[in-house]
Amino acid sequence: MSTSKNVRKDMNEFWKAHSTEATLNEMMLDSNAQQLSPIDLQEVLELIPNIQDKSILELGAGIGRFTSELCKKSKQVVAVDFMENFITTNRINNKNATNLQLICADVMNLEFTESRFDIIFSNWLFMYLKDNDIKMLTSRLLKWLKPGGQFFFRESCYGQSGNIKKTANPTLYRSPLKYNDLITDVTVSTQYSSKIGFELLWSKPMETYIQYKNNRNQICWLLQVTERGGKDQTFQQFLDKTIFNENSIKFYQRVYGEDFVDCGGHVTNEKISAFLQVHRGSRVLDVGCGVGGNATYMAKQFGADVTAIDLSANLIELAREKNAMESKLHFMVADASKVDYPGDSYDVIHSCDTLFYNSDKDGMIKKFWKWLRSGGEILLIDRCCSDDVAMVTNDHNTHMITIGRYERLLKENGFTDVSCADITSELIKSLQDDLNRFNHNSPSYSNKDNVHNEILTKLQETLQKCSDGVQVWGLFFARK
């Protein structure tokens, strides 16, 4: 097994061989870099946080493809690369930047004071580090960032993206899930906090590489430094390690069908057809998309262009695998309460069985209003409580409100043509049908797996709550 020291040596030799001329083609390892770079650059600049008057650390800066742009608005840029030829070219390209400090060094040997930077930016760096080095560097990044600071990074996942052939390629191609685990599992203490870690805000494939290279494996992330307090994990980690771990997802699919991880997926598709004006070219946002059942339906049935988001990285990974050839589907790991889109971005917003995880319904509805174009439509299906006091189930971090409260929030935030309905009976029937079919087709699961039996028990509890009138399912349609 190669050690971190040996890997760093191999990477050093590799980049010495690919930095002799310090050109764009060498840095991107692609013969079409001159054509690809401007488009890729613009996409990245639109994705990164606001850099105006911020202090930025750029890791793996290369010849300065991003350095120049970062220097235009930021207060200070510290740009680092371990290839002298790249740093020399970067210095020439940015000779007039008075807010730039260039450092030629291995990132594993860097030292900075705590809370120095607002943003850390990295493009194609972690794929040249061993797992343990990524964890060690992540612990340092957390300390170098200010409280609430943000970290943007991009990596080639699964395999090579550039077309320049290499005689030896020491690059470590990982899955997006692996990067999530490596980085979000790290926590540290600082002079300001007893425990901080990175929280995933969003992660998505680069559209430039999809469009021009049919490559969905260029993935970028935005994370934020957050207080962990007494918690060992973020809500996103809780979802992926508990509710939607690999075994649980497979089990849900056996119950609900391979396109869904919750009940009523086909009922929801019927409601989409009945309520929404979705047609070819419609821009749709599906919030809490799961493995993509409703998003796929809207893309295939109507020809809509669908952005589908979910906070579970496991669910999004599976959705991407299932729909790898669907050009109208764009899957994104995202916290809907923290991600943002430009105003007037979407014709339709749909969400099913998602918002009851969010305590700030008013804030989410305000976001939906902003993201919808004038005349746009919204269709929400959510678990609700039956009385006027919000029902919170602590073990699942759920926050339910009444159907009447939902209606008032939609109207108070400017939505018109608001209509609400109690569709509990339809979803109870759907859930009961799913359970009956599962029990008939999968008797071998009975009493053999504690995790699966626990899930079945909770589903039966949901049925009982609905039968007792404690929990209901509400449907909400409105127009901007």
Tell me briefly what this model is:
The protein is α/β, with parallel strands linked by helices. The chain contains 17 helices and 17 strands.
Write up what this structure looks like:
It is a single chain. This protein is 39% helix and 24% strand. The protein is an alpha/beta fold and 480 residues long. The chain has a 15-stranded mixed sheet that branches. Helix 11 packs across helix 12 (293-302).
Tally the helices. 17
Distance between the termini: 59 Å
The stretches of 5 or more residues where confidence is low (pLDDT under 50) are: none
Which descriptor suits the 3D outline? elongated
Largest sheet: 15 strands, mixed
**Alpha carbon gyration radius:** 24 Å
Number of strands: 17
The chain-level structural class is alpha/beta
Percent strand: 15-25%
The percentage helix is 25-40%
Mean pLDDT: 89
